Amino acid sequence: MKEQLWKNILLLKEKSPLIHNITNYVVMNNTANALLASGASPVMAHAQAEVENMCSIAQAVVINIGTLDEYWVESMLKTARVAQQNKIPWVLDPVGAGATTYRNKVLSELLALSPQVIRGNASEIIALATQNTSTKGVDSTAESNQAIAAAKQLVKMYACTVCISGATDIIINESTQIQLDNGDPIMEKVTGMGCTASALTAAFCGITSNYFIATTTAMALLGVAGSLAAKKSQGPGSFQVHLLDVLYTITEKEFINNLQLTTYE
Ligand SMILES: Nc1ncnc2c1ncn2[C@@H]1O[C@H](COP(=O)(O)OP(=O)(O)OP(=O)(O)O)[C@@H](O)[C@H]1O
Ligand SMILES: Cc1ncsc1CCO
Ligand SMILES: [Mg+2]
Question: Which residues bind ATP (predicted)?
Answer without folding.
Answer: 119, 165
